[in-house]
Specification:
The complex is a heterodimer of chains A (about 110) and B (about 110). Chain A has about 110 residues and is mostly beta strands. Chain A contains no helices and twelve strands. Chain A starts with a strand and ends with a strand. Chain B is mainly beta. In chain B, a hairpin with a 6-residue loop joins strand 9 and strand 10. Chain B is globular and about 40 Å long. The chains are: A mainly beta (about 110), B mainly beta (about 110).
């Protein structure tokens, strides 16, 4: 079956530091990949997506590239802000059968001023 | 994107009782999903609900415990039956944008069972 593995958190960074949150996946075929963000006390928001190999999703300064050869979809941001503090979830949607999302365990990011 | 509302936003219930959670979407969607997020954990799919057919449950979730209705393309309900403290969680509904394969989530229902 499908699975998603994320790096353990929490990740603690100073403001303006570079962020990488690793995400790898296991799936058959050609899944679509997503990053969701959950700010404190809020619901889950779609941050970015990529639907095929070598696609780069981007939003709010965050980027992730769909690497089929390494089955990875790492989230990056060049300069984090305190307002980026949240829990980030990597997820995949299979291209056949089950269309619900399979989520990683989530990574809490704490950005200090 | 879709705008999704859930009712109630939170509730505290006694063990042995049942709670029905409503999910309303501002547009017609084919697929709706119900997830559970236990405290500090990731999201786990409970079931997929398509209009006009029986919900499809994931392993570990059964219809008698989590009956789901999907009477039309904008609405669904999830009932948590005969609750125990282990059912304390956030319950979220989500919908899929049929064209973009994107999924959007409601704000969640925070359930505490005492």
């Amino acid at each position: 079956g499908n699975s998603v593995t994320q790096m353990e958190g929490p990740v603690t960074l100073s403001e303006e530091a570079f962020l990488t949150i690793n995400c790898t996946y296991t799936a058959t075929g050609y899944p679509s990949l997503f990053w969701y963000v959950q700010y404190p006390g809020e619901g889950l928001q779609l941050l970015l997506k990529a639907t095929k190999a070598d696609d780069k999703g981007s939003n709010k300064g965050f980027e992730a590239t769909y690497r089929k050869e390494t089955t990875s979809f790492h989230l990056e941001k060049g300069s984090v802000q305190v307002s980026d503090s949240a829990v980030y979830f990597c997820a995949l949607r299979g291209d056949t059968g089950r269309r619900a999302l399979t989520f990683g365990s989530g990574t809490r990011l704490q950005v200090q001023p | 994107s879709a705008v999704i509302s859930q009712k109630p936003s939170r509730d505290i219930c006694q063990r042995g009782t049942s709670l029905t959670i409503q999910c309303q979407v501002d547009s017609q969607v084919t697929m709706m999903f119900w997830y559970r997020q236990q405290p500090g954990q990731s999201l786990t799919l409970i079931a997929t609900a398509n209009q006009g057919s029986e919900a499809t449950y994931e392993s570990g979730f059964v219809i008698d415990k989590f009956p789901i209705s999907r009477p039309n393309l904008t609405f669904s309900t999830l009932t948590v039956s005969n609750m125990s403290p282990e059912d304390s969680s956030i319950y979220l509904c989500s919908v899929e944008n049929d064209e973009a394969y994107e999924q959007y989530f409601g704000p969640g229902t925070r359930l505490t069972v005492t």
